[in-house]
Amino acid sequence: MAEKKQTPKKHRWRWLWTVLFIFLLAISLALIFNEQIKNWLISSYQPRISRKSVQSNQKKKASYDFSKVKSLDFSTVANARWNTADIHVVGEILMPQSKVHLPIAKGISNEVLALTAGTMRPDQKMGEGNYPLAGHHMTSQTILFSPLYWKTRVGQKIYLTDAKRVYEYQVSVRKFIPATDVQVIAQTKQKLVTLITCDATGANRLMIRGKYVKQMAYKDAPTSVQKGFHGSFNNRS
Length: 237
Prior knowledge:
- By secondary structure, the chain is α+β, with helices and mostly antiparallel strands.
- It is 30% helix and 26% strand.
- It has one domain (32-230): Sortase, Chain: A, CATH 2.40.260.
- Helix 2 (34-43) runs parallel beside helix 4 (74-82).
- InterPro entries: Sortase, Sortase_A, Sortase_dom-sf.
């Protein structure tokens, strides 16, 4: 007997069910691997930094509105990764013992904090007064400012660079503070770097503070430090 041909209507329904199945499968996989995909998006941000790009970005405006900062969910990271032109990188932070290496960008917008460490005042300058930076604490122990919670201890070194000079600090304080304690980012006469991230609960903050040691031309920095700055960002292996 001749095989019955499918009617156009049956063929259409089979096609729709196939499309629906693939769509639901894609959604399910995205939900299952949501955290892994989010971490990959963060780690894939590898901007090129030069003296010229830093000088240009230092002139650009940025947001310092703490009230607009959102938790770092998948949509926030994806949006940041799509809009990297809104991230104005002005330097790098390197903490060899904590395994932190991140771009430093102006401001604390959601785009900035999703992919970098953000400056917390519009007037701050490396090597002058208090230089505060904010960064997210993730479930991964190696992404963004998460290593501050797990690995940073008093006595460790912190290096900042604007691609022209390297500024060396040494961790002198590691303590938890209330989220309302905003005075820690205020300008000071003493040369400091202040790193702020969430604690494990997200309710309070961890503050890492380093005292200024010295500064040097980038080319005169120790070879290990230059090698660290030349490595990948966001603790990407």
